[in-house]
Amino acid sequence: MKKLWETIDQAVLKSLPNAARGYEQRITIPEFTFLGVHNQPDFGHIVIWFYGKDKTIELKSLKEYLYQYRDTIISYERVVDVLYKHLMATYEPDRIRLEIEFRPRGGITSKMTVYRDWE
User: Fold this and answer.
1) What's the distance, CA 30 to chain centroid?
2) Fewer beta carbons below 10 Å: N end or C end of the chain?
3) For residue 70, how many other CB atoms are within 10 A of its CB?
4) What pLDDT, in 10s, does the model give residues 55-102?
5) DSSP string across 59-119
6) What is the pLDDT of residue 66?
7) pTM for the full model?
């Protein structure tokens, strides 16, 4: 049986041809929502720093992709992991940095960052 987070379809993500290399696409998603591991709504603020090769992120598809998380029970760590892997597989960027700051729950906030920078 698949876990709910395994049903998030990365094929929803679409790309556009990258018109020019060497620039940063910074995407901010201030109202990311999902269900925490206790089936309670959780909220986060996502920032993506993206340096594309041949492709760039089509924003409408990113929004539709993120909607899939709204009814998905998933941990903070798994959110970052799944989103990062899907972005890497779909866009194959030169560099990417993904940061999610999760809103307070029980008086505690958490910020998670994953990146693929210059090698």
Assistant:
1) 12
2) N
3) 11
4) 999 999 999 999 999 989 998 899 999 999 999 999 999 999 999 999
5) HHHHHHHHHGGGG-B--HHHHHHHHHHHHHHHH--SEEEEEEEEEEETTEEEEEEEEE---
6) 97
7) 0.90
